[in-house]
Amino acid sequence: MATAPNASCPAPMKAVSNGAFQHENPLDFALPLLIVQICVVVTFTRVIAFLCKPLRQPRVIAEIIGGILLGPSAIGRSEKFLNTIFPKRSLTVLDTLANIGLLFFLFLVGLELDMRSIQRTGKKALAIALCGITVPFLLGIGTSVVLRATISKGAEAVPFLVFMG
């Protein structure tokens, strides 16, 4: 019988500390660490946005570049930085806050949606959307039909083709 790999689930962090004067590291607690994480991300992306301003790049480009640089591609390679600012035990809180921010952003996008402009370009937009979905789907199915023998061993044909499409 095979044994399951060891999975670790970090214990939940306490929300707040008693303070640095009680000889506690504030970064061992959820709320101060979250504030530091937000400050690092916002400061980093604002500095990049300032540097990208002469290139006339929107702020979202600076945020993407900041995410790449703070992630495992650049600064995130430093174990000390990663374990201090973004320890694994804090990622649940940060991920939850990120999902709330995404929900708020999508709500704002929905508020700014202009149905009249969609109705004006409706037929063209529908045709472009259908082509943008159908053509890659058919190309994926065609490729998987040709390569099915090398990719799939024992999978049923229809679910495999739909999955690969």
Automatic annotation (TrEMBL):
It is a multi-pass membrane protein. It is found in: Membrane. The chain crosses the membrane at residues 29-48, 60-76, 96-113, 125-151. Its main location: membrane. Residues 47-146 form the Cation/H+ exchanger transmembrane domain. It holds the Pfam family Na_H_Exchanger. One of its GO terms (molecular function) is antiporter activity. InterPro entries: Cation/H_exchanger_TM, CPA2_transporter, Na+/solute_symporter_sf. GO terms for biological process: potassium ion transport; proton transmembrane transport; regulation of pH. GO terms for cellular component: endomembrane system; membrane. The keyword Transmembrane helix applies. The keyword Membrane applies. Keywords: Ion transport, Membrane, Potassium, Potassium transport, Transmembrane, Transmembrane helix, Transport. Belongs to the monovalent cation:proton antiporter 2 (CPA2) transporter (TC 2.A.37) family. CHX (TC 2.A.37.4) subfamily. This is Cation/H(+) antiporter 19-like.
